[in-house]
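Help! Submission page says 'invalid entity' but I think these are all valid:
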Amino acid sequence: MTRVAALVGPTAVGKSSVALDLAEALGAEIVSIDSMQVYRGMDVGTDKATPEMRARIPHHLLDLRDPAHDLTVAEFQHEARAAIEDIAERGRVPLLVGGSGLYFRAVVDDLAFPPRSAEVRASLEERVEIEGAEALHAELVGLDPTAAAKIEPGNARRIVRALEVIEITGRPFSDNDAWDRYESRYDLRVAGLELPRELLYERIEERVVAMLERGLVEEARAVAATGMGTTARQALGYKQVLDAVDPDDTETLADEIVRATKRFARRQLSWFRADPRVRWFDASDPGLSQALKAHFSGDGAVP
RNA sequence: GGCGAGGUAGCUCAGUUGGCAGAGCACGCGACUGAAAAUCGCGGUGUCGACAGUUCGAUUCUGUCCCUCGCCA
């Protein structure tokens, strides 16, 4: 089995800089597990690795698409696995670094993503409009009770997807039981980075201010001018810039981005906390670097 | 100093013809199957400015005081 190391955690804990040091120590190359850094031109807002960092350690899965063209989880899964194989074949260690929970599991676990159908989806979405999400949820209860039990009746997005898959594949949406198993297809070792909440929030605030200073507003407008798909369009920071009522009111803008980012960080944490494979490390610990190296190069005496 | 408006959750405010105080946001927790930086679910917020009076019962009515804002001087 291919040996894979992973570093996960919420935004702004300091994954990227730790990753560089770690990659050097492990003889690793970095595979970004980030749903937004795959878009070209979205650099300051996604805090993408700089050219200097990339020169130091090769980074994969960055700048895969123009923002106008959405990249799906399934495509990401495919590309990331290819990168992992490539790195391993060259005798180096793939180091996965990022905070996109679904993308992480898509790459590392045997999750299958049934195809999509624009027509089926469109008709389902129309029905949500007229009948309401609850009605479709009721229908899902009849078709796939297991899936229905796990999806809230108000969550139109997930209900639509479940019904779409059932219609396309003719099988229950809940068939994909790999979901609950947390069994990686690789010889995987995961480290999670965390910080006391207050500190994490402070760092988020500082980071947003820094992004604004580095020209987030200009970047967002430039990218928007060349076109943004639905996915890129909702990226934190970009969305707030583009939706701003008063573009000159930087204070309100910064405030909104900070709030959204904190909310996001919480959701990231709740995602990774649920993964039993993650071994947590305090990012403010002076001995962090040492501890991580020990964790990844040790011979498997992991919890 | 006079007149007016107001003081209720961390914030913005709603409300109670007198009967256990409620929304949004924030915050905490959770779910997560081709948009996931998405989408959705659950949860607690409290001397209702202070003191006195009326009342079985006052955040609500009355009085005094304090504070904030606006206008006038």
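Support: the input was valid. A stray whitespace character was the problem, and the output above is from the cleaned input. The mean pLDDT of chain A is 94.
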